[in-house]
Amino acid sequence: MKNRLSHRSQNISYSQTIEMAAKSRHLKNKGYDVINLSIGEPDFSPPKFILNAAKKAIDENMFHHYTPVSGYMDLKEAICKKFYRDNKIEYKPSQIVVSTGAKQSIINVLLSLLNKNDDVIIPSPYWVSYLQMVKLCESNPVIISTKIDNNFKIDPKQLEKSITSKTRLIIFNNPCNPTGSVYNYQELSTLVNVLKKYPKVMILSDEIYEYISYSINSVTSIASFSDVYDQVITLNGLSKSFAMTGWRIGYIGAPEWVAKSCDKIQGQMTSCTNSIAQRAAIAALESSPDRIKYMINSFRKRRDLVLNMMNEINGFQFNIPDGAFYIFPKISSFFGKNLHGKVIKNSDQLSELILDNTYISTVSGSAFGNDEYLRISYASSESKIIEAFTRLKHFLN
Ligand code: PMP
Ligand code: GLU
C-alpha cells in the first residue's frame, strides 16, 4: 500500500518531537512514571485575562462563524500594533495573515514562494519541521552547519558562501529551537549586510520564542533593518509565550504580495483559524509583555537549575542557552561506550535507552540535523526537572 502514496508523502518523515511526546504519553497511560522533557510545550495555563476574553467571546454569541481568511480585522490591527511596539516593524493589516498555528503560517509561506528544486538555506541545528516542509514542497534544503564553540550561530561568510542563483529562501530562527541561541543586534546586522545584496532571496524569520530570552532585553527582528524589510516574512505565534499550544494561533507580517498568496492558499485549505481563539489572541497581543513576565522568570529559574544539574552529569558538553526552553548537550562522548549492556552508536539509541531505563523522554539530535546531540526541554516544573536530572545522573554516571 505504501507505494500508492505520493512521492511527496513518502519523502517526508514523522515529526520526531511529536512522536517522542506520543511515546511518553503511551508509557504514562500504561502506568509508568514518565517525565516528558521531549516536547517544547509550556506547562503553564494561559493567563486568566486571556481565558476571560475567550469566555466573553463565547457569551457575546457573535463569533461562531467563518472569519475573514486572514483573521478578524481588529486582530490584525492588534498584531500591527504589537509588531510596532515590540519589534519596531511597520506593517499594515493587509500584510498580516493569521493561521492555525505557526506551523500553518510556515507551510503557507513555503507554498507561496517555492518551486520544485529551489534551494532553501537552513542553518543547522534546525527545528524539525522546517526540513520536512521544504521537502514537502519538493525543494532542496541547503544546510549550513554551526558549531557549539560558536554558540551554534552562522557567520556572514558561511551565509554568503551558501547563496547561489538557485537560493529562494533562508529560514532563520531566533531565539533558536533546539539550541537556545539568540543572535544579538550586532550579529544580525552582519548577516543583514550579506542578505541585502541578494534582494531576490527571501527570509523567513521565525520569532516564536521572542519573549523567552534571558540575556537580551528584547530580541531584534530582521525586518526592523530597513535594507531587507521587503525580503522578510516575520513569523510569530501564541503557542510558546502565552502557553497556548492547543489554541493554534500563528501569524505573519510580510510583503503584501506574500501575504496575499498566503491568504489565497489558506482560503483553499482551512478557510480561517478558530474564531474564539482569535478573540483571545486580541487580548493577549494588546496586553503588555510584562503580564507574561512571570512565565519567563520561571523559565529562567528552570534554565539555571538545569545548568546546575547538568554539571553533575559526566559526558555532557553544553553551553548556556540564552533563550527558548531547551538545552542541547553534545553527547557523542557516549558513542562506542557500553551503557548498561548496550553499546551506544547514535543519539537515537541514547535517547531511547534513557527513556526505556529512566522514563525520561528527550529528543535525539538527529531530529534537528546533528546526531551528536540530545535536546532536553525544560518547560516542566522545577520538581520534575530535579527528579528527571537525578534519574539521568544515576543512569549515565
Ligand atoms: N517554530 C518553532 C521554532 C517551533 O519550535 C514551533 C513549535 N511549536 C513552531 C514554529 C510551531 O508552533 P505552533 O505551535 O504555533 O504551530
Ligand atoms: N515546537 C515544539 C517542539 O519542538 C512542539 C512540537 C512541534 O511542533 O515540533 O518540541
Automatic annotation (TrEMBL):
Residues 33-389 form the Aminotransferase class I/classII large domain. Its cofactor is pyridoxal 5'-phosphate. Its EC number is 2.6.1.-. It is an enzyme of class 2 (transferase). Keywords: Aminotransferase, Pyridoxal phosphate, Transferase. This is Aminotransferase. One of its GO terms (biological process) is amino acid metabolic process. Belongs to the class-I pyridoxal-phosphate-dependent aminotransferase family. Pfam families: Aminotran_1_2. CDD domains: AAT_like. One of its GO terms (molecular function) is transaminase activity.
